[in-house]
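Have a close read of the entry that follows and walk me through the local backbone shapes. See right below:
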Amino acid sequence: MIISLSPIKYELFLRRVSANSPARVTLAKAKEIHVQSSRFSNKRVIVCDRSHAVALYKAAMESFPEALQEIEIAFKHDHFCWS
């Protein structure tokens, strides 16, 4: 799965997730991509399997609901691709 977050959302999510959370390791592996187009901003991209995405979803529900929309989009896209 591919989850894309703005740099600000990524940093806030990373700060709010506890050090013991399984989601912390997945978040820490995110890569920053630079987009040249002025219509898009730079992004943090998280590539993970479904189980890690579930851990991120649960962590977002608990500590950073602002990231839920981006994670839900990844689930919808993943379902669409593999259905």
Notes: The chain has one domain: 2-82. Helices lie at 7-16, 22-28, 50-63, 68-82. The first strand starts at residue 2 and ends at 5. DSSP finds four helices and three strands in the chain.
